[in-house]
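Go through the following before class.
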Amino acid sequence: MKLKQSQYSMGVLAAGSAYLIWGILPIYWKLVGSVPAEEVLAHRIIWSLVFMILVLSMIGKLKMVASEIKHVFTHKKQAMSIILASVLISANWLVFIFSVASDHVIEASLGYYINPLLNVFLATFFLKERLSKAEWVSVSIAAGGVFCMTLYYGSFPWAALTLAATFSFYGLIKKKVSVSAWTGLKIETLIMTPFALLFLLFFDQSTVSLWDRGISIVLLLMGAGVITAIPLLLFTAGAKRISFTLVGFLQYVAPTIMLILGVFLFHEPFSLPQLLSFILIWIALIIFSLSRSWELLRKRKLNSKPEFQKM
């Protein structure tokens, strides 16, 4: 019993830490704000790969991961899926870094609030999962929030929707391709690293060389690999030890921190129409979360009944 409690506590701590790191990432990207977003992305991809190779070598999992990568690429469908996942997560990273650099942290947080609702919406089409009436209501209310935000901006909130869409489709693909977190990140960065190197060597339009930016910026760009890999590994470790419902609630930690940072630290404008849009999204998330929690509780009660009662 004590061991189970200890494992549960470790799971909450690990998953909570992952969402905390993801929430404060805008501060990190602000520190490298003088570097163009596409250059930051290239360094993030390259140094993530370097960091993963070092860690895997240290813990003795490099051969295991190499074997799993080989297995993935011997199946054409899985290989195409993981390549598409690599493109999607890279696009997600680029839009997020660009949003932070261009003072759109609040809009980025909106994207990650929408993400779990979009996940459910996609599941109805691609995984044939059914939505309850309450969940359909929550999706409709969230759509109303996005519509209000569109009216406020006078244009489509492309950054928020792109972040939500790329991460949702990325998650959908990863659900169908069964690989470990170690292997997933290794493959994704391995696929994109040649393109990142080509960009830095031949297509980077920046007039300032890397070493002219100063040692602090160089170290921060190298550290981008570390802050990419660590929360993902923490999340994987945590998700294995706690319930999916708790993971669902914890995922709102990151966008909430981003919203607070955008308003109070970065002093981005936050008007009444924006607040109303967020309130609609929050109401949608509350309805969705309560609906899912109630459904899980109902199933547990049903499964816990003795066989003669079920008959």
